[in-house]
Amino acid sequence: MSPARSVATVALLAACGCLLAATRPPAATSDNDQARIVAAVNRLTWGARPGEIEAIEKLGLKKWLDQQLHPEKIQEDPDLAARLDPLTSLRMTPAELIASYPDGGAIRQMAMGKRPLPQDPELRAIVEREVAKFRARKDGSADPAANTAMAAPGPRLQPAQLPLAQARDVIYQRQPQQIPAFDLQAGKLLRAVYTRRQLVDVLTDFWFNHFNIYLRKGEEPELIASFERDAIRPHVLGKFHDLLLATAESPAMMFYLDNWQSVDPRVNKRGINENYGRELMELHTLGVDTGYSQQDVIAVARCFTGWTIRQPGRQATFFYNDRLHDHGAKVVLGQKIAAGGGMSDGLKVLDILARSPATAHHISYELAQRFAADDPPPALVDRMTRAYLGSDGDLRKVLQAMLSAPEFWQAAESRDKIKSPLEMVVSALRGVNAEVTNPMVLTQIIAAMGEPLYGKEPPTGYANTGAEWVSSSGLVSRMQFAQRLASGRLPGVQVNWPTLTAGGPVGLATLLLHEPLSPASQSVVDTIPAERTQEWAALVMGGPQFQKR
Amino acid sequence: MSLTRRIFLKDSALAMVGIGMLPSWLARSAWAQTPGGRKKILVAIFQRGAVDGLNVVIPHGERNYYDLRPTIAVPQGQVLDLDGFFGLHPSLRPMLPLWKDGALAAIQAAGSPDPSRSHFDAQDFMESGTPGNKGTDDGWLNRALGRAHHPPALSPLRAIAMDAQLPLTLQGAAPAVAIENLQQFRLGGPEALFASMYDQSSDALLRPAGEDTFQALKLVRQLDPGRYQPAAGVEYPNHPLGKSLRQLAQLIKADVGVEVAFADVGGWDHHVNEGGAQGQLASNLAGFGAALSAFWTDLGSRQQDVLLVTMSEFGRTVKENGNRGTDHGHANVMFVLGGGVKGGKVYGDWPGLGGDHLYQNRDLAVTTDFRTVLSEAVERHLGVRDMAQVFPGYQSSGYRNYLST
Fold first, then answer.
1. Which residue range forms the structural domain that includes residue A370?
2. In a mutagenesis test of the B interface, which of A300, A476, A526 is the best target, namely the one with the most B β-carbons within 10 Å?
């Protein structure tokens, strides 16, 4: 921190009097609060924007935490909606998405006359072109010349060089089926950079990853927007049971883990599919090795038979089909589920699982791993587990237990978590107050660092630990990103570097790290003349300290 | 991290610091002229997601196979027969010449003694090489490397994963790097300054990873990966494994000191609509087979030094499920491809698909522990003697002898 700024901070704290001062020895108050605020921002947000630490000092950490835990109290950035506005598919139902962005299967059906062509004239023209291409491929008459003739008209624009709305339109004209994925990735990046409800957004990322769904198995692109918007985000500070139920009833999860095709073998010889039943216990609730057996997996799968999707290729809504349900009696984890329960069989399973102490521990452990430490202190996990069990799985209470635990703050102030690629990129963008007009290149960079957004194929999701992210490829990508950001070579990203580098490396480090550069890093950065700002700014952002939070 | 790694890194850091130009020991010739000739190379391929091995090396001579798989069995007329009983999936036609030339063999009914049907656990167990033991935080291939006899100057690319992340298989005491794309693996001007910053970091993960990375960067810069031309007539498929193996072939042929390598390939978890002779599995296998075949041909004279082993965390149910797919099962098939392989043969005891012979009444039983296959590779191909360090707690009851001795 620059001397001027630390003097200002001390003066500010002295003037407003610290809200938390009563709980700690007064002598150490100001330092502790500064460190604690930085720790809070590092762990609970995507990174501080310029002036944010000072604003929290002014507001008081306790009040800030309370706001982040009650996001309705935070007035959202008025520009955010405008930034997300071009990403129309994020606001659609799955049925609207399917109709608006026909995928390969829909094109095939239209080519075979099994599905009507769209009404919208613009979409209709695009679809007719795709149908012609499909027919040409099918007849074997496709040759390079024909392909060129049928390709989208106009010059080959590079979408990454255009503003978001125009880039999206170019992609829409060429490959409308790419739009759902495009919108999801762009939306995730923009929201992380600009939302003021930071904790909710970090939690949405955490819970999406906990209930991970892969973008490219099949129908998911049309289903994920609703999954994240309707099943995950509204529940991240609510009851775990509600979150679990919302995911269980979501067409995206039904499809990804195959439950929509799981049926009573006596009704249809397709029979049960174990995939959801197993991952529900292993990943979503109890955790691996918590005592359930293969028989439990089968019993749970039987309970969820008939939980399916209505008109998957058109309407794609949740639908319980009693006719396909296995109505026999089941035993799940030693508890009897009587015959004839219908849909309540699955609901009972979710109740059993959501109330289980194993689930309370598993959820608490994962949250502590994400927010506190790769190896979370057992005392912290215990406190959170007790809060979970004492509140019927109220996730806000679990987080409050974490935030009132000394073990959490000790871990958070150690700054010992490796940033995920998304955290690294977004924290840099926030730190330098970047104006992101097109996030395409950024999402590609995050993928190259090892975290393709919505792109983790197995249901495990990404690990919450540093070892997931530290590799040669990943590190080189991080340093490359820092170089491109510092030298203004990132299409779609504008940064007002002169104002940021006016304070030299020390000022920039304060802004980005909220701690001084290590003496070793400082001596490396000092070898570069002050006027070569691009070079030393890249070193600050690509160096080891900025990789941690 | 273990002590051995720290010591190595400290020494190698000393060797690198302050040297502006590439140290002579990093020059290409250094690797080609190591005493005792070129090094042996072991390549591990992981098929993540549990490939359906019964539709890869197909027991077309067994009636049960067709009875239990009414919609996804590959019809006998389309199976590429190998020995009258087993045959390759038709998508693997590019691998057939390798089989006939005696470079390729399979081990059927191989797998883990652990009963887990969790992808997550079973992959960890196979990668750590310690089934049932979750406390292991390093991988079998890294341990194999740590114990191998080697000249004092080690290549920074000695252990490499063709991936954005270092897989558990290669994590451990010996330095290892993950490089997804050789052409993009470069930093330009500030490289040395970044190197110095990471070298002085106190972070237990970043510092050693930084060391490995900056050494690898120097070597890859010399390779000029953008200009690589595979051997005449070799075309790698547009498939993730094709991309990985193309780059690996370049590294091997450039004699940069690769000793162990890893690549993975996903997309095998076919609970629904798996397909038979055509379909989802078939199309992924087509890329898989074409990639292995291209890699092998591209290696040319280096075939003698290379052994490639494939594995997948577990097999899939013998009986197809109602969704024309298969669920998580037990034993699976492994391929071995190499100059020293006694190929053209399916190794292992066939347990059969009849009701009494199935594991837990549903899955193909394991008759060859996967560690037996890997042990033979590590001991006989890499020449590692202390196998108890590589697969602790495991003693093979006898190798399958797929390698000529």
1. 217-414
2. A476
Q: Helix, strand, or coil here: A4?
A: helix
Q: How close A186 gets to chain B, by Cα (Å)?
A: 22
Residue B159 falls within a domain, yes or no? Answer: yes
The pLDDT of residue A1? 39
Q: In terms of domains, do A403 and A440 share one? A: no
DSSP string covering A277-297 = HHHIIIIISS-TTSS--HHHH
Q: What's the confidence (pLDDT) of residue B35? A: 39
Highest mean pLDDT among A106-110, A339-343, B180-184: A339-343
Within a domain: residue A137? Answer: yes
Contact assignment for B179 to A542 by CB distance below 8 Å: no
Query: Within a domain: residue A453?
Result: yes
Spatial distance between the Cα atoms of B9 and B34, rounded to a whole number of angstroms: 21
CB contact under 8 A, A544 and B203: yes
Task: Pick from B125, B321, B358 the residue to mutate for testing the A interface (most A CBs within 10 Å).
Answer: B321
Residue B133's pLDDT band, with cuts at 50, 70 and 90, is confident
**Partner-chain contact B327 A275, CB within 8 Å:** yes
**Are the beta carbons of A542 and B194 separated by less than 8 Å?**
yes
Residue A318's closest CA among A309, A306, A330, A327?
A309
The answer to whether residue A318 is domain-embedded is yes
Give the Å distances, CA to CA, from B207 to B7, B169, B211. 13, 21, 6
What is the pTM assigned to this prediction?
0.80
Among A366, A382, A414, the domain-final residue is A414
Query: Residues in chain B, how many?
Result: 405
Res. A369: pLDDT tops 90: yes
Q: Answer whether residue B18 is part of any domain.
A: no
Q: Indicate the average pLDDT of chain A.
A: 90
Contact A37, A56 (CB under 8 A): yes
Q: Which of B139, B165, B163, B182 is nearest to B263 (CA)?
A: B163
B120 near A282, Cβ under 8 Å? yes
Task: Provide the pLDDT for residue B153.
Answer: 60
Hey, how many other C-beta atoms are within 10 angstroms of the C-beta on A198? 23
Report whether pLDDT(A32) > 80: no
Closest CA to B370 of B324, B315, B304: B315
> Which residues 6+ apart lie within 8 Å of B223 measured at CB?
B182, B250, B251, B254, B256
How many domains does chain A fold into?
4
Could you tell me the residue range of the domain that residue B149 belongs to? 37-390
Q: How confident is the model at residue A103 (pLDDT cuts 50, 70, 90)?
A: confident
Interface predicted TM-score of the whole assembly (ipTM), two decimals? 0.86
| pLDDT single digits (tens) B140-174 | 999 998 755 544 567 889 999 999 888 999 998 88
Domain assignment present for A209: no
Query: How far does A235 lie from chain B, in Å, by closest CA?
Result: 27
3-state SS, residue A548:
strand
CA dihedral (A488, A492, A495, A497) in degrees, to 10, reads 10
Q: What percent of chain A has pLDDT over 70?
A: 91
Please report, for the domain that includes residue B57, its CATH number.
Answer: 3.40.720
